[in-house]
Amino acid sequence: MAREIDFENSYIFRPAHTLKTKTGEWRIPPGLRKTLPFYMNKPWARLGKPILLFEYMARNVGPISHYMLFGQHVIFLNDPDAIREVLVNQAHKFVRERTLRRMKILLGDGLLTSDDPNHMRSRRIAAPAFHRARINAYAGEMAASARHWSERFNDGDEVDMNASMMELSLEIVARTLFDTTVDDDIREINAQTNAIMGIYNFLTAIPYAEALLRWRVPVPGLVKFRRARAKLDRVVNRIISNRKEAISLDPSNADRHDLLSLLLMARDEDGSALSDEQMRDEVLTIFLAGYETTANALSWSWMLLATNPEQQERMYAEVHAVLGGRLPTLEDYGQLKYTQMVFAEAMRLYPPAWAMGRKAADPVEFGGYRMPAGTHVFMSQYILQRDERFYPDPLRFDPMRHTEEEKAKRGKFEYFPFGGGPRQCIGEGFAWLEGVLLLATIAQKWRLQWVPGQPVDVEEKITLRPKYPLRVTLHAR
């Protein structure tokens, strides 16, 4: 963590000030006086640990802070009202930030990485798959998959819950959104995703990564990424081509009520179908976003429950009272209120989408400051949702923070694990249903005991991943 210094009297601090340039007069928030790379030897400013930097800025500068990175203005927001301005009120003035846009080298121009008008087209095509009626139809498959997972183990088995939840969530996405089974192709997606996550920070930090990949420059990390991406492409394209072949043999297979069917049937305004490249981009984006985020949310949930046995037993008592040993159904979701609060609190402390970035396409004003076009803006769910201004004793795991009464007191952007505004996560309802049903199903059969002595830390990849395995011992109930 940051060393304690007299920040406001330090040579690195610069108060809010007016900056006159050829493009206008700007009001700059307080922050760091020098360009950030000058301070890269500081523990709070390592490129590989942006959470440490964000924590430092929020604690020492304030809710709206400024620094320069490679000659560009960067604003970090830890203020709910300013975040609302960026994500909702002035969303039309912003585009995806460089780090997220760089993910195009993996995901292409899909739902997660595209800007309008492509983003609106992708969202319009995918939306029916996440309509409440369709999501509700997935409930039985989710619970059945969780029961099958639970039956694989014996009393006393030690399990890495992060690896297990990745496998289970991938199976559910494959079955519900793509109507396929978890075979070698699906496991290959998981393996190559893990390989890419291992080099993600290197990939986003290296200058001109897109050009280096295009020119096939043999930089070791980029070579590993290129191979993993090629394997992912082969698997995704095979899934698409197999479905197309099935439809050609039997046209009644055209609509299986899954996302892949919707993508194949989708038509642009001119009546044309999605190209092979567009299909690949959307399928891979939904695959990765659909299982990676929920798996991490569940992994952190189990870690918190295993290290807080009182809350774990309270959740089990609710599950037992509501279900009585049977599999949960859609109708049970609303009755599993404490289980919902457990999942909500886990996403407060360990939000899978841990930070968001935007880039101003036009001059913008918020919080009393005026910034030029090209300014990068970051906000972090991880930082704000651990802020004691909004959550007393913020590091304590307390599901009761999410009662209806407590939620009514809270502003929209004091808790926003799924983002907000026109780009709010399209799969939010899917994630809530899956998370709650899986917690309830697994808790029926197993009591989780934390394996003592193991470290717990986060890795800031595309999602907030555990840095180390999360090992628990399973005890039969």
Briefly, what is this?
Residues 37-41 and 43-47 have low confidence and may be disordered. The protein has helices spanning 50-60, 80-89, 98-102, 104-107, 118-126, 132-137, 139-150, 161-177, 184-198, 200-205, 209-214, 220-249, 259-265, 276-306, 309-323, 337-349, 381-384, 404-409, 428-445; strands at 13-14, 17-21, 24-28, 31-35, 64-69, 72-77, 94-96, 158-160, 356-360, 364-366, 369-371, 376-379, 446-450, 458-460, 464-466, 471-476. It is globular.
Characterization of this structure:
With 477 residues, the chain is of the alpha+beta class. The chain has a domain at 1-102 and 355-384: Uridine Diphospho-n-acetylenolpyruvylglucosamine Reductase, domain 2, CATH 3.30.43.20. It contains 19 helices and 16 strands. The protein has helices spanning 50-60, 80-89, 98-102, 104-107, 118-126, 132-137, 139-150, 161-177, 184-198, 200-205, 209-214, 220-249, 259-265, 276-306, 309-323, 337-349, 381-384, 404-409, 428-445; strands spanning 13-14, 17-21, 24-28, 31-35, 64-69, 72-77, 94-96, 158-160, 356-360, 364-366, 369-371, 376-379, 446-450, 458-460, 464-466, 471-476. α8 (161-177) packs antiparallel against α14 (276-306), α14 packs across α19 and α15 (309-323) runs antiparallel to α16. The longest helix is centred in the middle third of the chain and has 31 residues, at 276-306. The model is unreliable at 37-41 and 43-47 (pLDDT under 50).
